[in-house]
Structure formats: structure tokens, C-alpha cells
UniProtKB/TrEMBL annotation:
Residues 1-27 form the signal peptide. InterPro entries: DctP_fam, TRAP_DctP_sf. This is C4-dicarboxylate ABC transporter. Transmembrane segments: none annotated. GO terms for biological process: transmembrane transport. Gene3D superfamilies: Bacterial extracellular solute-binding protein, family 7. It comes from the Bacteria. It comes from Halomonas salipaludis. Keywords: Signal. The keyword Amino-acid biosynthesis does not apply.
Length: 339
């Protein structure tokens, strides 16, 4: 017996079938979204320092604490010695949404929000305590907040890499001794001007080129902190270190605003808290190690010269007259620090 099909029911049948397929598809999409939300957020931290540097140890501490507190919700991989690229490259990647972080000083950040550059002006603060007071101030935090619309989120600005001194192939005791000497800088205008007003000839050069540059006479010295000088084995190719302390190198652990804003709020809080804690740990370690580095470098035959800082500070005053707007900025900072 042939069964007659009721043609009137066909549209209803296919309509119901279509609804089932749509519901099924929606259900599968929801599962995919749920699976995605359960995946770990990944962050690659790239720094210029090698794996023997106190800053590297601080970053590892940050990684371990964040992964523990988020129970693996945030996974962090650490890359030393510029394996992921330069600080400037990583900062730009972070700004466009990449899952990268880096330690950076005030120079590159000052290219985005100019006021932040004041932290890298010569003798803007006298010591680490004043530097910490400045970066913790409402004044500085206001400048720091202006980075966020530009794509940069500062997790903490308390990673102290040390006082910057002059490591040279011949002794420097006064600013006059710098005359005619090519001093390696990172190439930023603010650092170049600082070295220029103190009496040297600023020479922009990649840090990795410092050793061969000194060895071959391309440069006569570098301005750097102890952990960098020691880590790059520069005591093998320099004669002396003038303890000018022209910069107090406080640096920031930064991520991209876009990446940070995608994190659950509890993860954001954890990253900030652990970055501050790790920064304090690395800074303390660095202060302790700096004393050891000085002893080791002295034993290697490097002359550590306690110079009259007032002479260099006097020369550096010209910096604030020649860098537009920085005289007013210094007055604002001095007023806050009650100097």
C-alpha cells in the first residue's frame, strides 16, 4: 500500500528541522565561547636584561606568584636578553593589543606622555627614596594614567635598576674630564642632552655593542648602572667608574591596555599587586648586589671614583633651560618633593 504524503505538513516539518539545527548550532557556539573563557590568558614578558640580572629574578617571581594566585588562569613565559625584540618593539606590540609585557624606563614612555620623561632628567631626584616618592605621587600617577588611552598599562613603576654612573676607558673626576669623550647612550634625546650638558659627546649605540665599541675605541665610555656594567663584562674594557649618580633608574613593568582590559577584574588586581611586590623584591636584590658588584669590579682593577657630584649637577642645570617645558616640570616636581 502506497502511503500518501500530506504536502501541507512538509513546510512545517522542514521548519521544525531548521529550528532544531539553529538551536543546535547556537548551543555549539555557546559551548565554544565557554571553552574560550576557560582557557588561560597568556602573557609573554620580554626584557633586555640577561638571566643573571636581579630584574630577571623579579620577573620570574612575578610569573610564579601570578600563576599560583590565578591557579593557572594567567600563564606567563619569560624571555631575557631581548629574545622577543627590543623594549621599543615590545612596547609598540603591546600598544596594538599583543599579549606582551616589558620593563621600560621613562624614556620610551615619555615619548608617549611627555611629562613622564622628567623621571629621566639629570638629578631630578637625589636618591632612591625621592624617586619612589615621586612615582608614588598623585602628580606622577596622573601622567601615568594618560598612557592608558594610548595603549599602555603600567602595572608598577617601582623596579629600581640602580644609579647611573659613567664607566670610561680613562678616569673622569670632573665634568672637564669628559671633554672629547664619546659616551654611549640609548640614543633618546633626553639622555643625549644630559650627557652633552655634563661635558661628554653622546653616542647612540645598541647596548650589545658597548663591549666591542669600548674595545675598539669607537666609544670612550658608557653611562649605565652597576648590574648592566657588571653583566656586560665591561670591567674587562674600562679603566674607571665615576659615581656621578646622574639618574636614579626606576623602571616600569608595562602591558598593553587592550590585553589588560580583556582580563577578569580579579586577574587585573592580581597582576598589579604581584607586579608591585616583585618590583620591590627585585629592587632590594639589586641594591644588595650592587655592593657586591662594586667589590668585584674593584678587585678586577677598575678604579671607583667618588666624584664631587655638585660639579656635575651644576653643569646639568643647563639641561632644564634647553629642554622646552622641563624647567616648569622640575619646579612642579621640586614643589611636590618640598626641595
Amino acid at each position: 500500500m502506497v502511503r500518501r504524503i500530506n504536502m501541507k505538513k512538509i513546510p512545517l516539518f522542514f521548519g521544525l528541522s531548521g529550528m532544531v539545527l539553529i538551536i543546535s548550532a547556537c548551543g555549539q557556539g555557546g559551548n565554544d565561547e565557554q571553552a574560550t573563557s576557560n582557557e588561560a590568558y597568556k602573557l609573554n614578558v620580554g626584557i633586555a636584561m640577561n638571566d643573571r640580572d636581579p630584574m630577571y629574578e623579579g620577573i620570574v617571581r612575578f610569573k610564579e606568584a601570578v600563576e599560583a594566585r590565578t591557579e593557572g588562569g594567567v600563564e606567563i613565559e619569560v624571555f631575557s636578553s631581548s629574545q622577543l625584540g627590543s623594549t621599543a618593539d615590545l612596547l609598540e606590540q603591546a600598544r596594538v593589543g599583543a599579549n606582551v609585557a616589558t620593563l621600560t624606563d621613562a624614556g620610551p614612555l615619555g615619548d608617549i606622555v611627555r611629562e613622564i620623561s622628567i623621571l629621566q632628567a639629570p638629578y631630578i631626584v637625589d636618591n632612591l627614596d625621592e624617586g619612589r616618592q615621586l612615582v608614588a605621587s598623585d602628580l606622577f600617577k596622573e601622567w601615568q594614567a594618560n598612557l592608558e588611552p594610548e595603549g599602555v598599562k603600567v602595572l608598577s613603576f617601582n623596579w629600581f635598576q640602580g644609579e647611573r654612573h659613567l664607566a670610561t676607558t680613562r678616569s673622569v673626576l670632573t665634568p672637564d674630564d669628559l671633554s672629547g669623550m664619546a659616551i654611549r647612550t640609548n640614543g633618546t634625546s633626553i639622555v643625549n642632552k644630559a650627557i652633552e650638558v655634563m661635558g661628554g659627546n653622546p653616542t647612540g649605540l645598541a647596548w650589545a655593542e658597548s663591549y666591542p665599541g669600548l674595545q675598539q675605541g669607537v666609544i670612550d665610555g658608557v653611562e649605565a648602572h652597576y648590574s648592566a656594567i657588571h653583566g656586560a663584562r665591561l670591567p674587562e674594557v674600562v679603566d674607571s667608574i665615576a659615581k656621578t649618580g646622574h639618574f636614579q633608574l626606576l623602571t616600569a613593568l608595562t602591558v598593553g591596555t587592550q590585553w589588560f582590559d580583556r582580563l577578569p577584574s580579579e586577574y587585573q588586581k592580581i597582576l598589579i599587586e604581584e607586579s608591585v611586590e616583585a618590583g620591590e623584591y627585585a629592587s632590594g636584590l639589586n641594591v644588595e648586589r650592587s655592593r657586591e658588584y662594586e667589590e668585584e669590579m674593584t678587585a678586577q682593577g677598575v678604579n671607583i671614583n667618588q666624584v664631587d657630584i655638585a660639579l656635575f649637577r651644576e653643569k646639568a642645570d643647563r639641561f632644564y633651560d634647553e629642554f622646552e617645558g622641563f624647567k616648569a616640570l622640575r619646579e612642579e616636581v621640586d614643589e611636590y618633593l618640598d626641595k
